[in-house]
Write a structure and sequence with these properties.
Family: Belongs to the aldehyde dehydrogenase family.
Strand order of the largest sheet: 15-16-17-14-13-19-20
CATH architecture of the largest domain: 3-Layer(aba) Sandwich
Keywords: Oxidoreductase
CATH superfamily of the largest domain: Aldehyde Dehydrogenase, Chain A, domain 1
GO molecular function: oxidoreductase activity, acting on the aldehyde or oxo group of donors, NAD or NADP as acceptor
Oligomer: single chain
Number of strands: 23
Number of helices: 15
Protein name: Aldehyde dehydrogenase family protein
């Protein structure tokens, strides 16, 4: 079943959510949000400004003391209520998510479920996170406490809105911070709905969780610059991460940055190819390749290279793409990103790479106005080519051969990024050796993107710093205080 192109009369407006209520933008202006399956506007989101950010931050600051001082077990109960409400409203939230992202009907509910798991996980941890007593001898009592920063800014991208909003907001709230979230202007709606449900139906006090909408230059920069914001978590591009880092450095506030990736996925000749081939397909084509963790460089040992390439071509050719609810690969979320991904087809041709499947510049005709890119695999690739070094952020895979373990590690680490890496082998010793040698924050063995909300996430090198997810995230949303008393 294909989607109908929405009529202009169906456009829905989304305002900021500040201090427990909707707020129209101070400017009175709105930005169109598009359905990527049809290339047509479906919603309008508030075009925020520094004035809107100031209103939200001051609401969060006013609510900070009471939320900080609330018993952790009470904070946890509210967060568990939010998790339950997300599950109760899962179909509703998923429809909002798909409306602006174009995700297939089967995919959005999975991401909504992960959002619920974040609130469930951190709600359960809210009463567990403590400091420690330090032994200094009989004459002293020394201890540490972990305290919230106060107002935390959470800036999220457009590729997985509800998932990434929950990933940052849930641990921040559990640690006793208040939050001002700034989602992408392209996919704002599900974050606004999350805030509304949390505050109006789950007992989260007004001002504890606020959402400001608008473009990054107008709202994101104002949020990072605001003197009452004490910590920022940002997920997005390296370019935007650098810009935010400059502002934060001037203010001397801490950042968590989860940026880009060009992650290697390594298939050794002893790998179980019945698992590795479909795993490699999912690693680069999931969410239409719009995943910073995507395994977009497939390193294959030469002895099985031909076999892998042949099987990969057949597997990728069978992947269903389109606006249908059962399609495995949906559209690229924004028109600008769609044009960027397609530009790499010509770059690949100039590099001398060979498309074994996909790479068709005329493929747009198949889906009319939708922003679809068929999964594309290039062979004959060397690691110095642009398509092997630059993050494409679309369903494009490059296959690079290697001779032995040492060469695999060298190629894998020869990148400015260090977000994730995959290893496919049945040799346990090799798995540990290679995992230790790879310069990346997440290593997956025999299942790409193994793990869950419990496992920490973050990068090396230009992929950022700090950690999200897991118990580790709570360390990044609190600051440590040491108290020493002479008895």
């Amino acid at each position: 079943m294909t989607r109908e192109q929405p009529k202009s009369s169906q456009l829905q407006r989304w305002d900021h959510y500040i201090n427990g209520a909707s707020h129209a933008p101070a400017s009175g202006n709105y930005i169109d949000a598009f359905d990527p399956c049809a290339g047509a506007a479906v919603d309008q989101v508030a075009a925020g400004s520094a004035a809107d950010v100031d209103l939200a931050v001051r609401a969060a600051a006013a609510a900070a003391a009471a939320w900080r001082d609330r018993r952790p077990i009470e904070r946890g109960r509210i967060m568990l209520a939010i998790a339950a409400k997300i599950r109760e409203k899962a179909a509703h939230i998923a429809a909002i998510e798909s409306r602006q992202t174009g995700k297939p009907a089967w995919q959005s509910p999975l991401e909504v479920e992960v959002a619920a798991q974040y609130f469930e996980f951190y709600g359960g941890l809210a009463n567990l996170f403590h400091g420690e007593v330090i032994g200094l001898g009989a004459g002293y009592h020394s201890y540490t406490t972990r305290e919230p920063f106060g107002v935390v800014g959470v800036i999220t991208p457009w590729n997985a809105p509800i998932n990434q909003a929950a990933r940052g907001i849930a641990p921040a709230l559990a640690a006793g911070n208040t939050v001002v979230a700034k989602p992408s202007e392209f996919t704002s709606a599900s974050t606004v709905e999350l805030a509304r449900l949390a505050c109006e139906e789950c007992g989260l006090p007004p001002g504890v969780f606020n959402v400001v909408l608008g473009e990054g230059e107008a709202c994101g920069a104002a949020l990072v610059s605001h003197p009452l914001v004490r910590k920022v978590a940002f997920t997005g591009s390296v370019r935007a991460g650098r810009a935010i880092s400059h502002i934060a450095a001037e203010r001397l506030i801490p950042l968590t940055l989860e940026l880009g990736g060009k992650s290697p996925n390594i298939i050794f000749d002893d790998a179980d190819l019945k698992q590795a081939i479909p795993g490699a397909v999912r690693a680069f084509s999931g969410n239409a390749g719009q995943v910073c963790l995507a395994g977009s460089r497939l390193l294959v040992q030469t002895s099985v290279h031909g076999q892998v390439v042949e099987a990969l071509a057949a597997a990728v050719a069978a992947v269903k793409v389109g606006p249908q609810s059962d399609a495995m690969v949906g559209p690229i979320t924004t028109r600008a990103q769609y044009d960027r991904v397609r530009s790499y087809f010509e770059i690949a041709r100039q590099d001398g790479a060979r498309a074994i499947v996909g790479g068709n510049l005329d493929a747009r005709d198949e889906w009319n106005a939708g922003w679809f890119v068929p999964p594309t695999v290039y062979a004959g690739v060397t690691n110095d080519m642009r398509i092997a070094r630059e993050e494409i952020f679309g369903p494009v895979l490059v296959v690079i051969p290697f001779a032995d373990e040492a060469e695999a590690i060298r190629i894998a680490n020869d990148t400015e990024y260090g977000l994730a890496a995959g290893i496919w082998t049945q040799n346990l010793s090799r798995a540990h050796r290679v995992a230790a040698a790879l310069e990346a924050g997440q290593i997956y063995v025999n299942e790409y993107q193994a793990g869950g909300v419990e496992t920490p996430l973050g990068g090396y090198k230009n992929s950022g710093y700090g950690r999200e997810k897991g118990i580790e995230a709570l360390h990044h949303y609190t600051q440590l205080k040491c108290v020493t008393i002479k008895l």
